[in-house]
Amino acid sequence: MTRPNLKTPKAAAIAGIAFCILLLAVFWLLRISVPTDPLEPGEWLRTSSSRVALALNLVPFAGLSFLWFIGVLRDHLGSREDQFFATVFLGSGLLFLAMLFAAGAVVGGILSVFALNGESFVDSTTFHFARSVAYSIINIYAAKVAGAFMISASTLLIYTKLVPRWIALIGYASAALLFGGYHLGWVFVLFPLWILILSVYILLENSKWLHE
């Protein structure tokens, strides 16, 4: 009975750290490759498509790490979690993954069509439409869903006393910025950074339990 209980928080911490590293790598590759203006002329397709393709290849691994993080964290919370906030926690996490994959699929489609049609595609309305869709999914909808995930997760963490209150308070503050600061290009990194803080704390606490 003791061994599974000790393994669960460690697995959650490792998955959370992996998710943070992968998502930050994706965000960094896209930020240095693709302009923030959704109406830009598409010059990045000629100069930075390889970096964008690398970022897209990392997205599934980031998503699977996040899904693993949610699963093992819920398993650790067990019967202590509140049903309402647990539903929002799980639902917003899955919705965030769906939006992350959808945006990745749209950008991947842009790369594929550009490889076939080149300059004619960049000058088309279809390119600007797809570019605007990917921008809206990540910077508006996914950011808001990530904020909802952080609020519900922080509430669960306070309710179950799994981590110190200050971690949950950071989650609330970061969620507020995600809800109101979509025009700031850097604000999205608050989500994986908060997951990193939570994961590192869980990992350190798990190490203490193992030595007791």
Describe this structure as you would to a colleague.
Helices cover 84% and strands 0% of the residues. It has 212 residues and is mainly α. It has one domain.
Count structural domains: 1
Strand portion, in percent? under 5%
First and last CA, distance:
16 Å
Computed over alpha carbons, the radius of gyration is: 19 Å
Number of strands: 0
**Total helical elements:** 8
Mean of all residue-level pLDDT scores: 84
Series of secondary-structure elements, N-terminal to C-terminal: HHHHHHHH
Notable characteristics:
84% helix; 8 helices; mainly alpha
Brief write-up:
The protein has 212 residues and is mostly helical.
List the helices and strands and how they pair.
Elements: H1 2-33, H2 44-47, H3 49-77, H4 83-117, H5 119-122, H6 125-160, H7 165-180, H8 190-211
